[in-house]
Amino acid sequence: MGWQLVRFWTLLVYTFMFLPVAVVVLLSFNASQFGSFPMTGFSFRWFIELAQNEAILRAFRTSIVLGLMTAVISTTLGVLASLALVRYRVPGANMISTLLIAPILVPEVVLAVALLLFLNFLNVNKSFTLLLAGHVIFTLPFVILVVQARLVGIKRDVEEAAMSLGASPRQTFFQITLPLMMPAVAAGALFAFTISFDDITGTLFWKPGGVETVPTQIFAMLRNSISPEINALGTVMILLTVGLPLLGLAIARRMSTKRGG
Amino acid sequence: MTVEAREARQPWILLSPALSAVALLLFVPLIFIVVYSFWLRSAAGADQVGFYLDNWQEALSDPFYRDILLNTLKIAAITTLVCALMGYPAAYFIARSSGNKAVLLLLLMLPFWISYIIRTMSWINILGVSGAFNSALMAVGILDEPVQMLYNETTVILGLVHFLLPFMVLNVFVSLDGIDRNLEDAANSLGATKWQAFTQVTLPLSLPGLAAGGLLCFVLGAGTYITPLVLGGPTDAMFANLVYEAIITQLNWPLGSALSLMLLAVLGALVLIYNRYLGMAQLMKGLG
Predict the structure, then answer these.
(1) Does the domain at residues B55-287 carry the CATH identifier 1.10.3720.10?
(2) pLDDT per residue as tens digits for the range B120-139
(3) Comparing C-alpha atoms, which of B135, B141, B114 is closest to residue A27?
């Protein structure tokens, strides 16, 4: 009996999580003028209008460039730091770990204000640079956590075997360690990209006037009323942000099984 | 240089880019806004450099700020409680299910990947004047006219729960999944009922996960300003909204600094208390 209740409750929780999202997708195909019920028919017109909306396309380009650059920088910093923490006996490792994940322990609004005011003091105004710096600093902890968790799983035996067979440390790193690390690196980069792509809290503080990322563009559009275009944009975002990590996961799994890691 | 010395230096070379980034882009800026909070906003031109207590006096004594701070903590507390009540049984189900745990967990994590702003605005489609609820209620004749169900404190909490629930479920799941199931069986064989075994064995052992999830829900909930802007009414501002107003709208950066630091102090105190009693390790498990 109790178990049935738990099962039913869980079903309700899943419904609660998915219903609003499902409605966004459903309404994005609504033929009606308005972004609301009733559904008057099935249509792709809002996706077509979306593809012709210059402001939204610009926001997409900004978000993608920002996300990619964030992912590259954040993953580089994160992988190096994780290697140090996992592979070496560093004095004060716990303290260092805490320092490195501090950006997610500080409320994002506070981080946003501090970075904005400090960089402004250094004459770096609201700009793409500020936006990038902000995105790097708050994605870094996630990259470190994800990469560290995967790195622990790589056995040192393989590296030692390579070394004992005469490989130099450099050769060992590039031919053994790096390929084994690739799933971890990919997971970290994907995480950084997705978090950057989705961010609005810090972005609203850092973005220069006139520059919009996809989330801030949606936010600005919400000020008027909820148009069917927003639902269509939402559907595209859902496909991107859910599809990409799933794809990444699949690739990572494939790579790790192929390499037997 | 000896091999040992080089070996000892290597990790620091690897760590230095990340550590300098965190120092330069987080710690120095935080110290900077402490200084900035003692400056003074001037009507025109640059803010006045100096040591003025005006901003702190305003932030700490004005009942307007105090009331909103208390209300923010209240909203965060209710959100956390609702997340725990909804999330615990779901996490328990996933951890104890005989089906495919990975798929069940992945399903619940999917919304976590879906854009925060999309998930927040999606409630307008459900509860808005022409949303799903109103349409359904009018179609079956319960309502004659659409009712505005949005833009109040309840919908702010609803939006926050929808945003934060996956954090709770994940943390509780990690904790429950690590409990040896033989313990429950042992309790049962010693005469405990299923319910007793749960409340006296499983629940206490899963408290660290519940606490980690609770901390995340509370801190993330109390620091938000987007959800109240999208799903709240004009009187539902949370403390982070005040920060946003001061910094972006009024351009009163010294006051904005003081307000940010107040929020940091309150939420930071919670993190420190948590760290003192439970340690950060549990939190890392849930996040990684």
Answers:
(1) yes
(2) 999 998 998 888 888 889 88
(3) B135
